[in-house]
Design goal:
Elements: E1 3-5, E2 8-9, H1 18-24, H2 30-39, E3 45-47, H3 50-62, E4 67-69, E5 74-76, H4 78-82, H5 86-96, H6 104-114, H7 120-123, H8 126-132, H9 146-160, H10 166-179, H11 183-196, H12 203-217, E6 228-229, H13 236-248, H14 258-265, H15 279-299, E7 305-307, E8 313-319, E9 323-330, E10 333-344, E11 350-352, H16 398-452
Helix pairs in contact: 5-6, 8-9, 10-11, 11-14, 15-16
Length: 455
């Protein structure tokens, strides 16, 4: 026998778990390879668990982590299939075996929607959107992998319900193409432009202002890009532990790329079309926002997660009554994707950092339903506020009031964050001192032992 799972030999395919055997049937050539490997006397294969075996068989045979179901038109990871449950997988298997009947198509669509799986046809719905905003032939957007296509699909779905004018979307696309170096950055900078919402009188002035704002904010975000490397896809408890350990060590949980960090800050910048953004103020706002995000994820455990269609990514929600964050694990690296703080005005207006409602808009599969509504909106439950109402100052817009309140709230939390960091620093110093004393004692013990054994 040459197949070992968790250190135990696998004498036959029948010894695999019921669900693993079921998923193995979706991998083209999977059963044949495993039978060959079991009987081989020249090769030895060891796997941590059955999930690792299925992933390795798919990647080893096909050089890709996602298997292809031609009758369904679906590209999906065996790991994701394993999470579906036997009955839902059986619906897909029957479709692949041409056991179709009149109700089968509806059942397949229900399974896809329930598990947020996108067929190749549904995933390609971004193409008419790109054509409508004039970038369908842009060279940057011609070579896409699954994650790139998913991001564009989500962007297109967002805009379908936004009711935005076509010219403003085309303008955001022009800005994104000017600054992006890959499809993911195109999506980030498109949203950056929308969140910044420049209002100058001409397209040239709006694009120039947005470019100056981007130039001002990017250097302030260089320290916001650290990720946490794990050895495998984790569960919520493991992610919370990794975040806590990382922050305790004085590191941060940052964004996966600079363009996404910039997108997060866009709506906080404000606008004066006749004046370039103040770099010092922009840097201070970015640092305050990032510190608030770190404090929030430090104090709140991650909640439920959604395994991606690629089987290599999970999106976790971290939420409280007035704050919410999205934490991503992709290819075993933990990153922050989004952080929002909710505020309430006296006249019942509600904003999220003066931005649109937070959506799971990055790397989270949207449901493949008949209504292409895009990424699911993540709502913010706001309990009744018993604090003194904040009166709206005369002549100030909701955006300006939101910015002032956000600045005040973040400033109020700064002292608490500093105090917590001081406590952590003292704990680290005390631990280091204890180690130093222990080392000295050990050296003294060795010295005394040497002296005792001397001539």
């Amino acid at each position: 026998m040459s197949i070992f799972i968790s250190g135990r030999p696998l004498p036959s395919i029948a010894q695999l778990g019921r669900h693993s055997q079921h998923v193995l049937g979706f991998i083209d050539g999977g059963r044949a390879w495993l039978q060959w490997a079991i009987e081989s006397r020249q090769n030895r294969y060891s796997f941590e668990d059955e999930t690792s075996l299925l992933d390795a068989v798919q990647r080893g045979l096909h050089g890709c982590g996602m298997t292809w179901l031609p009758n369904v038109g679906l590209q999906v990871s065996p790991i994701k299939l394993l999470s579906l449950g036997f009955d839902d997988r059986e619906v897909l298997r029957r479709q692949e075996q041409d056991e179709a009947h009149p109700a089968m198509a509806q059942q397949v669509q229900q399974v896809l929607a329930r598990h947020q799986l996108l067929t190749a046809t549904a995933l390609a719905s971004y193409r008419p959107f790109l054509a409508a905003i004039g970038v369908a032939s842009a060279p940057l957007l011609q070579q896409l992998d699954f994650r790139d296509a998913l991001r564009l699909h989500q962007l297109a779905a967002e805009q379908q319900g936004a009711g935005d004018a076509g010219e403003s979307l085309a303008e955001a696309a022009r800005f994104a193409l000017q600054h992006a170096c890959n499809p993911a950055e195109f999506v980030d900078y498109f949203r950056f432009y929308q969140h910044l919402h420049p209002t100058a009188s001409s397209s040239e002035r709006r694009l120039a202002y947005a470019g100056n704002a981007l130039t001002a904010v990017l250097p302030a975000l260089f320290g916001c890009l650290e990720g946490i490397q794990l050895s495998r896809l984790p569960g919520p408890a493991e992610v919370s532990t990794a975040i806590g350990t990382t922050l305790l060590a004085g590191r941060t949980v940052g964004y996966p790329r600079l363009s996404l960090a910039a997108q997060q800050m866009a709506a906080l910048l404000g606008e004066d079309p006749d004046q370039a953004p103040d770099r010092e103020r922009v840097g201070a706002l970015a640092l305050q926002h990032f510190r608030a995000a770190q404090a929030f994820v430090a104090d709140h455990p991650v909640g439920h997660g959604q395994l991606g269609q690629d089987g290599a990514s999970i999106l976790f929600v971290v939420e409280a009554s007035r704050e919410q964050a999205l934490v991503q694990v992709e290819d075993n690296v933990v990153n922050l994707l989004d952080y929002r703080r909710m505020l309430r005005f006296a006249d019942s207006e509600t904003v999220a950092d003066a931005r649109p409602a937070l959506t799971a808009s990055d790397d989270l599969n949207t449901a493949a339903t008949s209504t292409p509504s895009g990424a699911p909106t993540m709502t913010f439950p706001i309990p009744p506020d018993d604090r003194t109402a904040v009166a709206r100052a005369a002549g100030k817009s909701p955006m300006q009031i939101a910015q002032e309140l956000a600045d005040a709230a973040i400033a109020a939390s700064e002292e608490g964050v500093r105090s917590a960091m001081e406590v952590l620093q003292r704990a680290v110093e005390e631990a280091n001192e204890a180690v130093r004393r222990a080392e000295e004692q050990a050296e003294q013990a060795v010295k005394r032992a040497n002296e005792a054994s001397g001539p």
